[in-house]
Write a structure and sequence with these properties.
By secondary structure, the protein is mostly helical. The chain has 4 helices and no strands.
Length: about 90
């Protein structure tokens, strides 16, 4: 199970980095906002257990469901931080 989640995590981070590289081509403001989004992704992934997952979920749900829930929270945080930081820096 750990190998599968590692591969999904690695692919997700690689996709975020590829999107950030593409955003640097559009504008430096978008690229900088993308870096903030990647940082927010890692913070969101690390605190997602405390925010969205109840203790009983570890007993009831399979580990892959908990992992995908954590991944969803982290990606949502990355998108929200990217949008807010782009807006605050005046790109949108």
């Amino acid at each position: 199970m750990g190998c599968i989640t590692f591969i999904f995590q690695l692919l997700n981070v690689a996709a975020l980095i590829a999107i950030d590289i593409w955003m640097w081509g559009l504008s430096s403001v978008f690229g900088l906002a993308g870096i903030f989004g990647i940082i927010a992704y890692f913070i969101g992934y690390s605190v997602s257990v405390e925010f969205t997952i109840a203790p009983r979920d570890f007993w009831v749900n399979p580990a892959i469901d908990i992992f995908f829930k954590k991944l969803g929270v982290a990606n949502t945080m990355a998108i929200i931080v990217w949008a807010i930081s782009s807006w605050l820096m005046g790109a949108i």
